[in-house]
Specification:
CATH architecture: 3-Layer(aba) Sandwich
Oligomer: single chain
CATH class: Alpha Beta
CATH superfamily: P-loop containing nucleotide triphosphate hydrolases
Radius of gyration: 17 Å
Structural class: alpha/beta
Largest sheet: 7 strands, parallel
Helix content: 40-55%
Number of helices: 8
Strand order of the largest sheet: 3-2-4-1-5-6-7
Shape: globular
Length: 220
Amino acid sequence: MKVELNKPILDLNNRLAHENRERMRAQSIYMLDLLASPGAGKTSLILATIAALKTSYRIAVIEGDIASDVDAVKIREAGIPAVQINTGGACHLEAAMIARALEALDLAALDLIIIENVGNLVCPTDFDLGEDAKAMILSVPEGHDKPLKYPGVFQVARAVVLNKRDTLPYFDFDETAFAQSLAELNPHAVLFPLSATEHTGLEAWTQWLASQIEEKKLCS
């Protein structure tokens, strides 16, 4: 007899994710799960997004890292509430962790929660956190072949950010091949080429996110 050891774990996680999602629905809060490799620019994108949207929306961030609170400190310095989750070695966040983090936030004062997941292109794809959508960041230096090597993360993403586009002249990155691979894996994903640190190409991304927040408000 074959025993699926991960099934009870995922079943419990999915139940808690449903509870998180219902809680966000009741508060009309849009929750985004941001996935990427270490160094792809998650925190830089979050900070640029905050700068663009903080006058229109009330934002908080949940930071997931194996250790340290370096990124959470940066978010707080930008004037935004941030809750740090240290996984102590686990390569992903889970719904139970998010539930505990939500207890530390004033949900009645929020429109948007951004979850910065642990830097990883594999583990986080299997765990529903109760988010409205997963978004994935790929940076130009990582190479255009990543959809072929890590298809799962591209398939679950509603939006894909191609970050560090200002470095294109220095890397052998084929944008056309990347876009084609993404379209084959996930024809519904919206692609946003940009540079978070240079603040170029950000408007399309922030407008998309704002539209998602507004849609959630209307549907809740």
